[in-house]
Amino acid sequence: MITNITENDIEIIEDLENKFPNIFLKNDILKDFKNNPYTKYLVYLIEGKVVGFINYYMIYERMEIVNFNVLDFFQNKKIGSSLLEELLKIAKDKKVGNITLEVRKDNVKAIHIYSKYGFKEVAIRKNYYNNTDGILMECELM
Ligand SMILES: CC(C)(COP(=O)(O)OP(=O)(O)OC[C@H]1O[C@@H](n2cnc3c(N)ncnc32)[C@H](O)[C@@H]1OP(=O)(O)O)[C@@H](O)C(=O)NCCC(=O)NCCS
Predict the structure, then answer these.
(1) For residues 84 and 46, is the Cβ–Cβ distance under 8 A?
(2) How far apart are CA 90 and CA 66, in angstroms?
(3) Distance between CA 119 and CA 135 in Å, rounded?
(4) pLDDT tens digits, residue range 60-81?
(5) Domains of the chain
(6) 103 — alpha (psi -120 to 50), left (phi > 0) or beta?
(7) How far, in Å, is the centroid of ligand 1 from the Cα of 76?
(8) Ligand 1 atom closest to Cα of 84?
(9) pTM for this one?
(10) pLDDT band at residue 128, thresholds of 50, 70 and 90?
(11) Which of 29, 30, 70, 112 is 20 to 30 A removed from 13 (C-alpha atoms)?
(12) Rounded Cα gap, residues 110 and 11, in angstroms
């Protein structure tokens, strides 16, 4: 099941922070909801437990993917693809014009999956990730 959580989904938020400790500190997500009116978390649940998520910003007619992760054990089972498909569906429903993201140049798997859903490379961000370049990718919907 894929769902857009709110600040009231306390159990899911705690599970998300526990499952991805390299990304979140305790209470990061609640603080994010409090401080950033544009932030959203699309979460993939199996039997109520988090296995993957996309954190994105919905800023009027555009979206930005901030973080996209699936737990190692659940990778390569199309969970990431399902999350991206759901995000694209939301974007179309909300009449979003374009979605952007930054990805490490050496992250071939992520680049593959973004390309599969129509994202194109539009710019290189030199040394965006310490010594590795970032690629700005964009998916135009309108
Ligand atoms: C990127 C990520 C979210 C994808 O999630 P996932 O559930 O594994 O993705 P899926 O199973 O839906 O799809 C994986 C695709 O990558 C392909 N793939 C797998 N390993 C690959 C590799 N080494 N190189 C290129 N493509 C690869 C698979 O064949 C599949 O493509 P297909 O649908 O055309 O067959 C997940 O791998 C992840 O969490 N990675 C670590 C964090 C990360 O890099 N996030 C992106 C930051 S921008």
Answers:
(1) no
(2) 16
(3) 11
(4) 999 999 999 999 999 999 999 9
(5) 2-140 (3.40.630.30)
(6) beta
(7) 6
(8) 12
(9) 0.97
(10) confident
(11) 112
(12) 28
